[in-house]
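Supplementary material to the annual report.
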Amino acid sequence: MYPFWEGVLIHSTLYVAITSAFHVLVSHLTVAAAWFNLYIERRAVMENREELYQYLKRSALGLLVFAYVFGALAGVGIWQTTTAANPRGISTLIHNFVFFWGAEWYMFLIDVIGIIAYYYTFGRVSKQTHLRLAWILALGSTGTLSIIVGILSFKLTPGLWLQTGNSLNGFFNPTFWPQIGLRFFFMFVITAAWALFVAAGLPKGFFERAKIIRYGAGIGILGLIGGVLTWLLIYQPALPQHAWAILPSRAIPQPTFPIIYFGLIATAAGLLFAFLAPDRQRRVFALGAMVVMYGAIFGAERTREVLRKPDVIAGYISSNQLVFNDLPARNVSSEEQRLNETGMLGSLPFVPAASQIAVNPRMTFGSSDPEVAVGRVIAIQQCGSCHSISPQTELSVAGVALDLRSQAKLLQMRNLSTVDEIDAYLGGIQGFPYMHPFVGTLEERRALAKYLAEFTQLSAPQTAAQAGK
Amino acid sequence: MTEQGLTIGDMLKMMRDPLGAPFFPPALQALLVATWVLHIFFVTLALGASLFSIYAFWQQRDERARQLGRLSARLTPNALGLGIVTGIAPLLFVQTIYDPLWYTANALTGFWSVSFIFVVMGGYSLAYFFYLKGSQDRRLLFTAVISFVLLFFAGWIMHVLHGVSIRPEGWMTWYMPDGVIDTRGVTFHAYNIPRLLFLLPLQAGLSLAVVLQFSAWYLRRRGDEPAFLDWVAELGRRLGVIVSPLYALAGLGWALTEGPEFGVTLVALPLVALGAGLSGYFLWLKGKQHGPQAVLIWLAGLLVVAIVREVIRVASLARFGYSVANYPYTIDWGSVIVFAVTTVVGLAIITYLALVIYQAYATREGHISPRVERLGKVAVGMLGAWFGFFLLVGLYTLIVLN
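Predicted assembly:
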């Protein structure tokens, strides 16, 4: 167990989500833009069309400045945010896949050095050599995509790894190939928006402007159709039963699905408009499409992550960072069973014994009850990875709380306010498909209930009145 | 011994990932040290180039400095981009063999750990903005200044993370001051100013010094103005002459502060020797010019620093019985083979790309030699074949390992 970082203003997992969605947008853009640019450059070389290089140079500068380095930065950002938010989760991945990530690192290097070489050698090397650089970028970026999908999909469907412990089984897991297909198609949609953005910035009279916009929009529409079909026909059928139970549940907050559907429809409409009326395309439309897609990607990626709840690695380690199943092939034993017997307090690093916990009423909503202080420590370990467990991560903007599944609000919603009610609720929490059973002793559960009761009552004074306080 | 009965050593052992490492841990340690050298070179180069471009545009008189300032402004974001990408590799290996340290440090400093990337993004964006919009006519100098401040601050965050990671004895106190857990992660818990000075600003000066030497050598080959290039080379040499003794002093300061703390004061010897050696080297360079040799010598120096840095970490952890040599491992041949094959392909492609960049600007017209073109064909073929290999490994897994 590691120290717990709840977050500041917003919950730690929201930092992960914001960074990840940005990374997905940018990194997919680099992959598909590399292929689109390769296609354009091949035409430029084969048909000897100098004017296409103007588009390529503009696109390459944008990719160099924005996409490649920001993609890499956001990738590092995911490391930082996941490390701070859920260290044991990322640790499981790194100890399985460090060499896959190492291989991906080479592809990253190829991408970043490649885009520098690509941009700065326009007009300084032969066209054939430059075309080769375009090939390297397209292949290198596809390499990064191919590798990372194995690691991402492992979290939801570790497959045979749960028996063999072999990283290859984990990597080439049941949703690996479907997810590769899905991402490959959808990245062309992102690229289309990028191509439209770059091409729309070309001078109005530039005679290839409309053609490039048409190419881009056409490829985007094909990508969208391919992506939706892959989702319906290949990816969805590969989802495990557990994921189907999560999909309609409260674990995926509204309005996630409307945002995704709106994103798809708006993007399709925008691409169609660009295809039919390329001359009327404006940069602001493409920028709008990017923003809409960011929203849709945010929703879709978040849904993909939530589908494996309550686990970080389905069937192996839970969101609260405890290994809950044996993995004999790697000599790993479940931690939950032992902790139910010994209790959480004092049994894990950074989970102090009751005697070490001091009372600070500022941290326990004004309460001086030592049991509430103990309950706070249990809440940190058991609930904090997914829920806001204090006002620290309940930022309000214009009266709207940006909390993440605040414990207090969840309990209010279920009309639970007394210690007994909350304790009983915690005892049956595993009834929800997205929750693990409480781990620890009954005394620890009771202390947790006390802390949550205080939190709930602080957040809603009317609940305090109901509780007779 | 903590009150709960767990010693720090027990804690460190318990915190190791139960899956263990996928290869001999000392080999991963070697990779960690080697890849950090590349990372710190590019990062300090970005800082040095950034600082020089600010100076060049801030001063009014010297046109040569401004000419070089424009090149530095262009170099800053590119070096930073490479610094970021090369930083991923040590990040991977440190998590594999030093997971208890790295994860604890990041969680204890959570807010800054997460802010790090946004700080770098800001610094990078402004560096590019200044290069594209400001560096031609000395406008927008404040963007370059803010960029430098942000990048240096990012370095400070990493410095603190490392400082926290090698001081396990402070973890519980920092996490639970007065018995109450602090989940904000907003405090800079540990730092060492001589170490920071040694690793960031002074190494930035030295990275810039050798790259100025290299640039003069490189640009001379394509026939750029000799007087300007002589000035660039001499500037690099002088910078080296001034910075190297300070580097030795800061190294001594680092060794005399962290050394006694972890029982390795002897690291003063290599650090001071390195500073003194570099001082001698830059003095010796008077009237001469070194191109690639200067960079290679500096990379060797950085390797010494990387080893010293590792020795300090090892010494700190040895106090609690934690050793990389004892880290549990199971060789995971599948992923090892994927990595090894990708290393061969990756190095071929990277070599080709570096040669293309090098040759494209080595002459006025830009000419890529037939040998490099042949390497390109082979390397791209290898990259294409990599996908075949990847597919085969997938099929093998699906059919044989099922």
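Chain A touches chain B through 106 residues (CB under 8 Å).
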